[in-house]
């Protein structure tokens, strides 16, 4: 398989043990496919500079809430980072270079900026993959607070998360413990790519949708639904032999899938049995 240099860098980065994956670098390699002339080091340096400036503002008391308040003051008041509520589906909200340049993003990319700056001042935080709205929290035992990077670094609690979920889905949603669990670096990147996948799919940019799916499958090889989606994209783009391979693999893994009959009809149309 022939990868672009950006894809190769992304692949090399994610071959490491999960905790050693550099999220900022991996995110910039994702962006580099959109912006081939992007220099990742420029944006790594920007995050380093933010951390140096933040370090000078830190209170002598290293109490977690004080540190979070200081980070919030710096990122949102001094630098002007904000959630892009007006144009939430703008793909630029998903690219770390654009988020740093424009000071606008969605929950997961603003969380990434926050996490990377916090890490550089030795304040460990983790991503929290709550459905519909990514959060972060200090990686400190017995401290059950969450930070909403999309909403100015608002500090919230589990009950607030319950209310936010019901608001997002416009119906009562029971908060499950796994909704507030820390996510791995690979899952973090997969969620970023999933956002891009659906943005591009809505815009009918099928090549870019395919590129997002391909990278999700680099993170998690053999995931059935992504393999199916890749097969369907191959079909729409006229890559019929690749489509057949993926769709047959999908049916082999989940022969009684809800959409199995539709996939079999498509394979029949391509002259292959499901």
Automatic annotation (TrEMBL):
Superkingdom in the source lineage: Bacteria
Coiled-coil annotated residue ranges, if any: none
A matching Pfam family: TPR_9
Domain Protein SirB1 N-terminal: 42-193
Segments passing through the bilayer: none
InterPro entries (alphabetical): SirB1_N, TPR-like_helical_dom_sf
Family: Belongs to the UPF0162 family.
PANTHER family tied to this protein: F-BOX ONLY PROTEIN 21, SI:DKEY-261L7.2
Protein name from the UniProt record: Tetratricopeptide repeat protein
The species this protein was found in: Komarekiella delphini-convector SJRDD-AB1
